[in-house]
Write a structure and sequence with these properties.
Elements: H1 10-17, E1 26-27, E2 30-31, E3 33-34, H2 45-57, H3 68-87, E4 95-98, H4 101-116, E5 134-138, H5 147-156, E6 159-163, H6 173-179, E7 184-190, H7 202-211, E8 215-219, H8 231-234, E9 238-242, E10 253-257, H9 259-264, E11 275-278, E12 283-285, H10 299-315, H11 317-336, E13 341-344, E14 355-360, H12 365-374, E15 377-378, E16 380-382, H13 387-392, E17 398-402, H14 409-419, H15 422-425
Parallel strand pairs: 3-15, 5-6, 5-7, 7-8, 8-9
Antiparallel strand pairs: 1-2, 4-10, 9-10, 11-12, 13-14, 14-17, 16-17
Length: 430
């Protein structure tokens, strides 16, 4: 790694870029401008090396086997858990490995459904839902933080209610107070919208949930990679994030849960490595986090995620957040100067992260994305797994540019310069 505590100006970022092999690639004969980190991030060499190092030296199953390699693999696996826990202000036994954030949200929803069905004994009774109980989400949720709750409601008789966003795509506490009420049992919210880049007022939403005794589930996929996040300080009950959005490989995600709540939840997946005693008639389960980690685990991926957390910590999440704020402000300002652009989300850069989704009048998002890709610029197009939010704005798709610690102002300027020629290319009058 080449950068430690340098300010993240363009000079420092260019040093960081040397740690990311893909940034030297040509795409369609043009230097790659990667502005799709909101979907998945690139990986630095230390993360690639960490996964390879584990595979070359510690190949063995964890939490089973008494031989030396198995013990060493288990030690590395649990050390990774400690590192990731520290990165988000949690304790190691509050971190459950999952395949991705979507699995983590499904785990919580399905386990609450199991509790409602009577599984888990007296400790799980606190999670049981009655017909008419309410699960509150927001209008801007990713499908992963909506559909599992719809399914839970269908199984239990609960009702899903949504906090509407305002015309700038933001969730306000005034709107939330109109929805969160005495029947609310779960409040599931995104920390940062993957479409509008708006930062939710988590502190206020937690207070509203606490006032009615509701559990809070936080989708932190777009916050943990980009800003300092302390889950204990946020006082949420559960949270999820994915490794592939924060420099780590695909196939590894994290569910955080308060220790007492994880130990009260009945399991989601069952099988080996999550039990204490099994008979032909019944089974008893280990405490968390192992009770939620059935079967062979994502061992090398967890090691790589810990390495990614180390990388981000050395660079500094506060520096990364400040750098992306600058890039986000440049994106917002530049987009507003291009004819035909309709920006989704707040126009005040203070209220958003370094991501911008927009509609380009007269040009479909997929056409805009193809035009940009021809010039080596990678962006995301589509509904971004947030169809209700796009419907709120009267559209089916948008184009999204998202920045990260390895992007420079030159990347943003190249994107804006290319975008300014899209409408004329497709013969749409200004």
């Amino acid at each position: 790694m080449t950068v430690q505590t340098l300010p993240l100006d363009d000079t420092a970022v260019r040093r960081i870029r040397s740690d990311f092999p893909e940034l030297g690639a040509l795409v369609n004969g043009k230097p790659l401008v990667y502005l799709d980190s909101g979907a998945t991030s690139l990986k630095p060499t230390n993360v690639l090396d960490a996964e390879r190092w584990f595979a070359e030296n510690f190949t063995a199953a964890v939490h089973r086997g008494a031989h030396t390699l198995a013990a060493e693999a288990t030690e590395q696996f649990e050390r990774a858990r400690e590192s990731v826990a520290a990165f988000v202000g949690a304790d190691a036994d509050e971190i459950v490995w999952t395949s991705n954030a979507t699995e983590g949200l499904n785990l919580v929803a399905y386990a609450i459904g199991n509790a409602t069905a009577g599984r888990g004994g007296a400790a799980s009774a606190q999670f049981r839902l009655e017909p008419g109980d309410e699960i509150v989400v927001t209008e801007s949720e990713h499908h992963a933080n909506l559909i599992p709750w719809q399914e839970l409601a269908a199984r239990t008789g609960a009702v899903v209610r949504a906090i509407p966003v305002d015309d700038s795509g933001q969730v306000t506490l005034e709107a939330a107070a109109e929805v969160i009420g005495e029947r609310t049992r779960i409040v599931a919210i995104a920390h940062v919208s993957n479409v509008t880049a708006a930062i939710a007022p988590v502190d206020g939403l937690v207070r509203l949930a606490r006032a009615v005794g509701a559990f809070v589930v936080l989708d932190a996929c777009q916050s943990v990679p980009h800003m300092p996040v302390d889950l204990h300080a946020l006082d949420v009950d559960f949270a999820v994030f994915s490794g592939h959005k924060m420099l780590a490989p695909t196939g590894i995600g994290v569910l955080y849960g308060r220790r007492d709540l994880l130990n009260a939840l009945p399991p989601f997946l069952t099988g080996g490595s999550m039990i204490t005693t099994v008979t032909l008639e019944s089974a008893e389960y280990l405490p968390a986090p192992q009770r939620f980690e059935a079967g062979t685990q994502r061992i090398s991926q967890a090691i790589a995620l810990a390495a990614a957390c180390d990388y981000l910590s050395v660079v500094g999440l506060d520096r990364i957040a400040a750098h992306e704020h600058e890039l986000g402000a440049r994106l917002v300002d530049g987009l507003q100067q291009i004819d035909g652009v309709r920006l989704l989300g707040p126009t005040d850069a203070v209220a958003r992260t370094g991501l911008a989704a927009f509609d380009l009048e007269g040009v479909h998002a997929h056409d805009a994305g193809q035009f940009l890709d021809d010039r080596g610029i990678a962006v995301r197009v589509g509904h971004h797994c947030a169809q209700p939010l796009h419907r709120r704005f009267g559209m089916t798709a948008s184009t999204r540019a998202s920045t990260y610690l390895y992007n420079t102002t030159d990347d943003v300027d190249a994107f804006l310069d290319a975008l300014s020629g899209v409408r004329s290319f497709f013969g749409v009058s200004a």
